[in-house]
């Protein structure tokens, strides 16, 4: 009986121990990130740094060793310095190419070890064109031969640009171009960062009118194509001439709003270089004859809650807020519910949790198989594009600005009792009257 009991007990203990080990194994396996349309298909292992090269003045030169010093130790595949992947971090200085004293086109080539589908490329840098290698062209592609490259289209070219490829495009190389003019102070092109998406999206944020909870003077910077990295004056922040002093909380959030003249379709937002923490996105679901600026809280429908990260000192920081579905609305509101987590690169910039910032807010509309501008054209088709209203303030003070018609009747109150520094300023009118028509 003793032997049987001991054996039975041993078997039970062994089974229990195995169960504990199995549970431990299950617990330590990291969760796999859920793929979304905004997940790049690129990995660090796909980047073919050996064919990194520039072309200028009919001469191609290898640029596979463009980093210097100790930086190489942290970026053994040097392309991860400027190309976003799903399993690496980017650098902070970018790369220049075609640095000569002569005007004209110059190219930078980035190669991939196998073909990938590409619908959209987002770039930050000094660029005038983007193209990808045709599947029929020999890898890695002759940068001087335009017939080997499929050009991408872009509605607007700025520091941050969205480039859209024809449906069904696959490629093994990207050619980035800067066509310098004789009047340029510097002729080199530059790439601060590149993000590749499989699906086709158009950024229609510039078709909207931006509104903000605080510091409306800088609202237009949300859609001007400038990055605002490292707390520069290129982005919007809530720290204007009358900044808040209390920390940002869910009960007292800051917010930014994009308003279109008519309903548009979005799949998500992208907050570029966001000095913010937890955020949520809401869509306007109020009456059609009411301007979203006048909406009550009941007029806003929740879409998604997420978290932003500045990831300083990366040069091209994108915070994707995927809605999980296509959403049709006339306005979206991004609420900032908590301040960013500081590190050595942004030490003190949240001002004890009271300050937030957005370098750019992109609104991504799915194109599918449609031609470019099919999404952004929805707003333009209404005949009410954002209209710049420029004015000059003789000295620091508060400004009230309104639009009247030829008969002196009030059409729209643009801003009221808003502080402006002395000098020239621009605010934007959506072309609508107070009723939203």
N-to-C SSE string, H for helix and E for strand: HEEHEEEEEEEEEEEEEEEEHEEEE
Task: Determine Rg (CA atoms, Å).
Answer: 26 Å
Unreliable residue stretches: 1-33, 374-385
Work out the strand percent.
Answer: 35-45%
Largest sheet properties? 8 strands, antiparallel
What are its keywords?
6-stranded antiparallel sheet, 437 residues, disordered N terminus, 8-stranded antiparallel sheet, mainly beta
Entry summary:
With 437 residues, the chain is mainly beta.
Write the layout of secondary structure elements.
Blueprint: H1 2-28, E1 47-56, E2 59-62, H2 71-74, E3 95-97, E4 104-117, E5 120-126, E6 129-133, E7 149-151, E8 160-164, E9 170-180, E10 189-197, E11 201-203, E12 209-212, E13 236-237, E14 254-275, E15 278-284, E16 300-307, E17 318-336, E18 357-366, H3 377-381, E19 387-393, E20 397-404, E21 410-420, E22 423-429
Q: What features would you describe in this structure?
A:
This protein is mainly beta and 437 residues long. The chain contains three helices and 22 strands. It has helices spanning 2-28, 71-74, 377-381; strands at residues 47-56, 59-62, 95-97, 104-117, 120-126, 129-133, 149-151, 160-164, 170-180, 189-197, 201-203, 209-212, 236-237, 254-275, 278-284, 300-307, 318-336, 357-366, 387-393, 397-404, 410-420, 423-429. The strands form five sheets. Strands 11, 12, 13, 14, 15, 16, 17 and 18 form an eight-stranded antiparallel sheet that branches. A six-stranded antiparallel sheet has the order 2-1-4-9-6-7, with no helix packed on it. The radius of gyration is 26 Å and the shape is globular.
């Amino acid at each position: 009986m003793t032997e049987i009991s001991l054996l039975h007990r041993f078997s039970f203990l062994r089974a229990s121990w195995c169960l504990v080990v199995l549970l431990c194994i299950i617990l330590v396996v990291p969760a796999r990130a859920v793929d979304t349309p905004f997940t790049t298909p690129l990995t660090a292992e796909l980047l073919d740094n050996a064919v990194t090269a520039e072309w200028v003045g009919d001469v191609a030169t290898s640029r596979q060793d463009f980093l210097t010093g100790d930086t190489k130790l942290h970026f053994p595949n040097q392309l991860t310095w400027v190309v976003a992947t799903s399993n690496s971090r980017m650098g902070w200085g970018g790369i220049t190419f075609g640095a000569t004293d002569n005007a004209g086109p110059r190219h930078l080539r980035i190669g991939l070890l196998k073909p990938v589908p590409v619908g959209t490329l987002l770039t930050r840098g000094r660029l005038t064109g983007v193209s990808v290698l045709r599947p029929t062209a020999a890898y890695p592609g002759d940068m001087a031969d335009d017939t080997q490259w499929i050009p991408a289209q872009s509605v607007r070219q700025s520091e941050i640009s969205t480039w859209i490829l024809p449906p069904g495009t696959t490629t093994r190389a990207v050619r980035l171009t800067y066509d310098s003019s004789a009047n340029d102070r510097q002729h080199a092109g530059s790439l601060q960062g590149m993000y590749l998406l499989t699906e086709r999206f158009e950024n229609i944020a510039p078709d909207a009118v931006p509104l903000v909870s605080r510091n409306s003077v800088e609202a237009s910077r949300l859609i001007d194509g400038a990055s605002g990295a490292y707390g520069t004056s290129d982005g919007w922040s809530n720290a204007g001439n009358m900044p808040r002093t209390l920390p940002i909380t869910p009960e007292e959030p800051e917010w930014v709003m994009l308003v279109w003249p008519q309903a548009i379709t979005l799949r998500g937002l992208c907050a570029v270089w966001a000095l913010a923490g937890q955020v949520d996105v809401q869509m306007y679901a109020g009456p059609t004859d009411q301007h979203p600026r006048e909406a009550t809280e009941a007029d806003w429908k929740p879409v998604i809650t997420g978290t932003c990260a500045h990831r300083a000192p990366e040069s091209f920081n994108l915070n994707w807020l995927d809605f999980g579905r296509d959403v049709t609305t006339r306005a979206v509101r991004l609420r900032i519910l908590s301040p960013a987590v500081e590190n050595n690169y942004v030490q003190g910039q949240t001002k004890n949790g009271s300050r937030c910032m957005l370098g750019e807010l992109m609104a991504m509309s799915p194109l599918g198989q449609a031609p470019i501008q099919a999404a952004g054209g929805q707003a333009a088709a209404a005949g009410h594009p954002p209209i710049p209203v420029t004015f000059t303030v003789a000295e620091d003070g508060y400004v009230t600005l309104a639009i009247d018609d030829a008969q002196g009747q009030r059409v729209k109150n643009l801003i009221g009792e808003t502080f402006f520094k002395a000098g020239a300023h621009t605010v934007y009118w959506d072309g609508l009257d107070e009723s939203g028509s």
